[in-house]
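Complex 250.
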Amino acid sequence: MDLRSARAALQIARRVAVLTGAGVSAASGIPTFRDAQSGHWARFRPEDLASPEAYAADPELVWAWYAGRYRDVLAAQPNPAHHLLVRLEQQKGAGFFLATQNVDGLHARAGSGTRGGRLAELHGNLALARDEVTGEVFPLPDPAQLSLPPLSPAGHRMRPNVVWFGEYLPEEALRAAQQAFAQADIALIIGTSAVVYPAAGLARDTLLGGGKVIEINPEPTDLTRLASFSLRETAERGLDLLLTEHLNEH
Ligand code: APR
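Predicted structure with adenosine-5-diphosphoribose bound:
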């Protein structure tokens, strides 16, 4: 497949399933997961902060890290890649499914999931916290009002509502994503190293279902050899190349 045929395939596809990773938020100034370890946090590995064991050992430390990331994410804005995916959803309607591994909430803030398609935040959302006793989920207050660790209205300690290393993905969201990728004419895999399972298996679900895989990533990944077409571009430029002209035609 070349760029021209990839564009044509996307244009005629009735069902499009998209998987995004940290690369989609790079242009919003959100560091990728591993690059986030700078300054004071440079001496920690992400695995030593984003795990149930780390939280059990030192909840204040883990919350301080998440509170900093939450502040950074609120200060950031969705970029053209997020907005182009909203326009693609507008075009495909119920045939559109977006699964993201990002916890920054930028797809939702751009409007994904509100134009007839669906958004699944497979790894949770930094702006939400979960009552450790009841499992109920609540939005975090504004960073200025946030005292750590946050308590639920029932007075229980809350934990970040994100999926940590060694934890299961939200079952319903994962099942919906697997179904959407298995039925997709095109899977669009953007800005993810695609090493983390089961998210990385979604592209394979599309191939097994007879669909095609298009990747956008400045670097080759483990998925590149499975992709019908790999666009070596940033998320925003790659989406622009794939979508803009035909979106303007409507
Ligand atoms: N546009 C598109 N892709 C980019 C850009 C960009 N501007 N900049 C970097 N990338 C690509 C990199 O080449 C890399 O393949 O984004 C990918 C980022 O990879 P990771 O940092 O591994 O992020 P991600 O794939 O989202 O990680 C998945 O792993 O550690 C866990 O839970 C964490 O959600 C995270 C998951």
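The two ends are 24 Å apart (CA to CA).
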